[in-house]
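stage 2 :: seqdesign
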């Protein structure tokens, strides 16, 4: 049967498409690929290989329309005598103008049928093989009985020089390594039994074993042949095998009547003699029966065959590709190792162990990792929390210590403040009394004398008044700091308050200075803090008269329209204050003229008093003929 691979909708439909009558596909004449399959029972493996072949062929620039698939449709070993003829018929269809550029043979049955061809033209065809054994047999002649036929095992790599085998992949069923392994693990071994079924592959393996057994004269060889023995018979013979016997498993898939046996039948054979050491040559029985074995590393060969095909075609048939051996590997069953009490250290290095009882880690790896991460996070959180708790305790202790120190400092400061206040009050009393006496006698002395003596008396009186003013400022500032400055609102006529303030600073008025009082338009009594307002006005007038040699000092009072506030401005024609000093002069002990008498406390007192009654004291920056202080305070009525 011939099919274009492009017409294979899915490899799952391949068995149906291969059974129907032959169809012709468009292939490039003399340049295409002819794939001939056995269509053996392992259809899934065959279909997967074909699919990989086509994908890889297209991937590297090949035209999949030039690929033609043919099948021998090998259903059973009983029709093996017809395979050679079927192969010849397929090859004949593709000779002449339709001769393919390369032939790819897949499967042991098709490969043996191809190697059995006598036509020299067929033998010249460049051919690749895959899914085949290195040791093979030719198809049986018509004259033999298939039940007793004993063919000769042949080596593909040595015994077919007249065939144009350009490449491919072959499996090796290594009897030597398996026997050596059995001898190492079971030194008591004296007898070897080989198990094969009623299939072409089984007969091929049996032929290989019979060829190789001549190399081991020290062992007794016998065969369990599925061609002539049923499952029951084979099981019975296995149960009676001697304790010095080792079983080599070849194949077990087809029974004497060409019926496919179930995989579970190998369990029956195992249970017939559970302690019998069994080694697998081809992977049959691995996982439940065989202890292990040295077996081919089966894998999909489609991609490799596609690359070899393209390499050969693109080189014009000149590429030297050659047959490649598929590697083998040691595979052992952990459960059978335990049952047969085999020392695992005796196994070859790199052995693959299957059916090993999963450890807690193998079974719950993700869960263990997740739990471990959670535990690490919790531990990390605990560590971080412990660090922060320790720091918090440290800082809390530091804060408590600082609080205690601050409390002590506060107590000390309060004590110092109280001592300062008491000291100032005592000094005020002790100094004021003699100063008042000095001022009084100076006035008497000045009134009773004329000439120079009167002048000296006036000087004494003026300086004594300055000293009394300084002491009064210190006391007032001390009271403000201590919060002891008491004042209660009372009705005040603003013009009267201004005259009282003027009388307190008369000693500072120079003869060339004119005082101007502008009272409020509505000069009725207003509710205010009389003493505090008077204190501010007195200090502002005192400053104005002190720094004005000639000119005028104007005291202007008015009520701000729409607001319950009184504005008092003191304007002079004195020295003036630089703009960059407008705020500095309100600081304590600040003096712009060091030669002028005073302690630099008057304006500081004004600012402190204003703050106590929610008022403001500022300098008018637009007035430049002298100084203009503006005092705005709330009216409480």
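stage 2 :: out
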């Amino acid at each position: 049967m011939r099919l274009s691979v492009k017409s294979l909708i899915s490899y799952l439909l391949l068995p149906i498409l291969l059974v129907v009558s032959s169809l012709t596909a468009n292939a490039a004449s003399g340049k295409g690929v002819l794939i001939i399959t056995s269509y053996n029972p392992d259809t899934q493996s065959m279909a997967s290989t074909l699919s990989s072949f086509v994908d890889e062929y297209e991937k590297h620039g090949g035209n999949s329309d030039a690929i033609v698939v043919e099948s021998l449709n090998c259903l059973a070993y009983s029709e093996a005598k017809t395979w050679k003829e079927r192969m010849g018929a397929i090859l004949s269809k593709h000779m002449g103008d339709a001769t393919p550029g390369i032939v790819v043979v897949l499967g042991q049955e098709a490969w043996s049928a191809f190697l059995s061809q006598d036509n020299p033209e067929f033998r010249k065809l460049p051919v690749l093989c895959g899914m085949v054994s290195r040791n093979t047999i030719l198809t049986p002649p018509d004259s033999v009985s298939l039940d007793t036929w004993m063919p000769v095992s042949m080596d593909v790599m040595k015994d077919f020089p007249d065939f144009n085998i350009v490449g491919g992949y072959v499996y090796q069923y290594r009897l030597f390594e398996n026997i050596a392994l059995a001898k190492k693990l079971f030194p008591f071994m004296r007898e070897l039994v080989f198990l094969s079924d009623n299939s072409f592959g089984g007969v091929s393996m049996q032929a290989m074993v019979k060829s190789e057994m001549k190399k081991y004269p020290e062992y007794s060889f016998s065969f369990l042949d599925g061609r002539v023995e049923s499952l029951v018979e084979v099981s019975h013979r296995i149960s009676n095998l001697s304790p010095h016997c080792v079983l080599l498993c070849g194949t077990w898939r087809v029974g004497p009547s060409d019926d496919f046996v179930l995989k579970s039948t190998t369990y029956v054979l195992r249970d017939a003699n559970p302690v019998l050491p069994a080694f697998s040559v081809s992977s049959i029985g691995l996982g439940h029966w065989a202890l292990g074995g040295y077996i081919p590393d089966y894998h999909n060969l489609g991609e490799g065959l596609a690359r070899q095909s393209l390499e050969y075609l693109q080189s014009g048939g000149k590429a030297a590709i050659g047959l490649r051996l598929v590697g083998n590997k040691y595979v052992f069953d952990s459960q059978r190792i335990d049952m047969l009490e085999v020392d695992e250290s005796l196994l070859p290095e790199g052995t693959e162990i299957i059916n090993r009882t999963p450890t807690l880690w193998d079974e719950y790896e993700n869960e263990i990792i997740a739990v471990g991460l959670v535990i690490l996070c919790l531990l990390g959180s605990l560590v971080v929390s412990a660090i922060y708790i320790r720091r918090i305790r440290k800082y809390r202790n530091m804060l408590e210590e600082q609080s205690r120190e601050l409390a002590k400092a506060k107590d000390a400061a309060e004590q110092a403040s109280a001592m300062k206040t008491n000291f100032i009050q005592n000094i005020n009393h002790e100094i004021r009394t003699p100063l008042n006496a000095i001022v009084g006698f100076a006035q008497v002395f000045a009134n009773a004398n004329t000439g120079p003596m009167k002048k000296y008396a006036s000087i004494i009186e003026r300086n004594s008044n300055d000293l009394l003013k300084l002491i009064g400022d210190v006391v007032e500032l001390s009271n403000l700091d201590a919060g002891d400055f008491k004042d209660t609102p009372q009705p005040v006529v603003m013009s009267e308050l201004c005259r009282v303030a003027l009388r307190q600073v008369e000693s500072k008025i120079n003869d060339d200075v004119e005082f101007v009082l502008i009272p409020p338009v509505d000069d009725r009594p207003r509710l205010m803090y009389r003493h505090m307002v008077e204190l501010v006005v007195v200090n502002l007038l005192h400053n104005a008269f002190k720094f004005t040699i000639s000119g005028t000092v104007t005291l202007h009072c008015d009520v701000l329209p729409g607001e319950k506030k009184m504005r008092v401005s003191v304007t002079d024609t004195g020295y003036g204050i630089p703009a960059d000093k407008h705020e500095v002069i309100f600081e304590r002990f600040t003096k712009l003229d060091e030669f002028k008498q005073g302690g630099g406390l008057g304006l500081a007192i004004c600012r402190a008093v204003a703050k106590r009654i929610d008022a403001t004291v500022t300098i008018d920056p637009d007035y430049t003929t002298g100084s203009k202080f503006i005092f705005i305070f709330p009216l409480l009525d």
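stage 3 :: structure notes
- The chain has 17 helices and 23 strands.
- The first helix runs from residue 14 to 19.
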